[in-house]
Each structure stands twice: as structure tokens, then as C-alpha cells.
Design brief:
The structure is a single chain. This protein is α/β, with parallel strands linked by helices. It folds into two domains: 2-76, no CATH class; 104-376, Metallo-dependent phosphatases (Purple Acid Phosphatase, chain A, domain 2), CATH 3.60.21.10. Helices cover 26% and strands 25% of the residues. The chain has helices at 2-16, 121-130, 160-176, 187-194, 202-210, 224-229, 250-255, 259-266, 280-286, 305-316; strands at residues 20-21, 24-25, 35-45, 48-56, 62-70, 78-82, 89-93, 104-105, 110-114, 146-149, 180-183, 235-238, 241-244, 320-323, 333-335, 340-342, 353-358, 361-366, 371-376. It has a six-stranded mixed β-sheet. Strands 11-10-9-17-18-19 form a six-stranded mixed β-sheet, with helices on one face. It is globular. Residues 1-32 have low confidence and may be disordered.
Length: 378
Amino acid sequence: MKKLTLAFLSLLTFTMVLPVTSGHRNIMLHTIPEEQYDGPYVHYKGDRVFATYIMGKKGKKFSLKTDSIALLQKDNLSLNVMTDIPGKSFQVRLKKELQNEKSEFPTIKNLVVLSDIEGNFDALRKLLQATKVIDENLEWTFGEGNLVLVGDLFDRGLQVTEVLWFIYYLEEKAKAAGGYIHFILGNHEIMNLSGDLRYVQQKYLDNAVLLNQKYVTLYDENSELGRWLRTKNIVEKIGDIVFAHGGISGNINRMNISIPEINKLARPHYADSTFTSADLRSDTVLGDLGPFWYRGYYEKNNPGITSQIDSTLSQFGAHHIITGHTIVSDTISVWYNGKLLNTDVHHAAGKSEALLIENDKYYRVNAEGKKVLLLEAK
């Protein structure tokens, strides 16, 4: 308890002496070269855009560096984002506009699917390189193929900011090549947007203090990443595959609504910590039996699950459901004769795998590029 008290008092002392000069807060501590520790955090204030970086030396001594530009010139703002490789970064340009994603897409011959990266940039990079989605220079090499992220980029890991910006960056690269990235929100995205911080690393809570902000404002509607996250869906369908972080419960089936309607009900409440709505259907969609929390597929005693899955597939005109959210194996696994696939593996423990779909053949692929055939769809 004494150590925690001392650490807290130290942080208070640190933030109190932080001077403010021309939009910059700096701590002058010795002459140790600075390195980028976190960021950028991009916010809109009036007619300007501000990008703030947390700089430091091995996380011990921090300063804030802020770049700003007129809103009308935001296309000229270049953001530097670090990777898991020391000294290696990539440059991001802000999108000209953000629009809500559509939620139903035609069949795509080549798909790579993964989930629950949880701030582990190294696992994400290695899997995308192993599946030929990106090259050694982090450039998109998947052509017209599609990448699907089935939720939970947030929490647990220590490079959440970098992971988010990397997907943001790759989206434009994919579109330019005729491909696409689908980022389907999981429970951890919704938790962060709505202020449920149970799994947020202390690093990010401390960084919010350094930025003189509440944590939830890092991803609010005045932030670029917050605006971007709000354009994403909680359920999508590509060809004959339904993607949801947790799954589709029987309660959702009985609502008898379409995938676009599910997303329409959920989107206004992503940052609503109460998850209450005048429309009771929204309560179901956002609750424990909604697409980003549901775990019923993998419960040991659920005798009606097969008929429930069949009902979902029939209702949405699909043949397969792909989820993350629940670790049930060290590898990507196939359930119920191929009707259900689970992509959640323990990336932080070195159990990383992605699902590769090529011309109706489903493979699990590890970080070294080893492919194992799981299923051949009829």
C-alpha cells in the first residue's frame, strides 16, 4: 500500500509542476534524448486540429509534444506512429471524411480474419505479414482481398494506440488497391467508448492524466479515433458469412431484424454508459445477449444451440458464423460441422493465428506462415 501511495503522490507532483506554453506542456529533465512513448491523440477544437504525442525515455520521463493545423488544412497534417519494432514508424494522413460503414457485402474470394489483438502490435504485424496482407514495409499487398477484424483491438496490451492507427492507415491502402478492411467492434471497444475501464492498462490512465483529460475524452466525438470508431458496425455479413465478435443469440433471432437494423439500433449508444433506450430492442442488442457480449455458442450445456445457429443462418441467408471473444482452443477452431468458426486465440501468449479463406477453403495460419486446412465449404 505504501508503494502505491508513493507512486500516486509522485504522479500528482509531476502533473502539478507541468508548465503550459503555447499549447505544449514540457518537462525539462536532463538531456536524455526523447522517444515517442504513446500517441498521437488527435482532437478537434474550434477551427483547428491538434495532435499530441507523449514523449519520454523508456516510459520514465515524459513530455507532451503538440502539432496543430487549421481544420481546412488537416490533409497536410502528417502523424507519426510507432510500431513494435524499435525506431520503426509509419506516417498517417487524416481521412478527408468519415462515413458509417455499410454492413452487407458480396462474396470475396480472399479473406483474412482475426480477432482479439488487444493492443499486441507485434502479433498483428506478424500475422498480416504471414498471410501476405502486408509486406515488410507495412504496405498493403493483399490486392482486392479483404481483412476482417472481429473486435477487441483495445485493452490488455501496451500498443493500443498504435494498433488503432495502423488499421486506420491500412484502410486507405486497401481501398486504393481494390481491397477492404472490416473492423467489427467488440465488447472492449464499446467498454472504452462508454467509460468501462476495467481492462485498460494503467499506462493509458496515466497518459490521460498527462494530457489533462478524462480517459473517455481520448475517444470522444471530438477525437479523430473516436469519430472513426463510431462509424464501425457490431455485425457484418460478407457473402454467406456472418461476422460478430460474440455471436447472435436466440433473443436477437426472435427480434427478426436485419443486420443493417441491428447496427442502426446499436450505433447511437456506443458511448452510452447506461445502455438504456426507449426502444427495448436496443437494450437487447447492447446487453449480455447482444452481438458483442454473447458467449452462448461455447457453453457446455446449451442443448438448443444447434437449432439456434440454424435459425440465425436461415434468417440472414448465410452458411457460416465467425466469432472471436471467447478462447476455446490454442488454435482457430471449427464447430457444428463448419457452421461456426472461432478466431479468438491467446496472442499475448504466442498462440497467434489468423483465419485465411481462399476460394471456399478455410485455413488457420500462424505467425510463421504455416497453413493448416480446416474446412472446405461446399
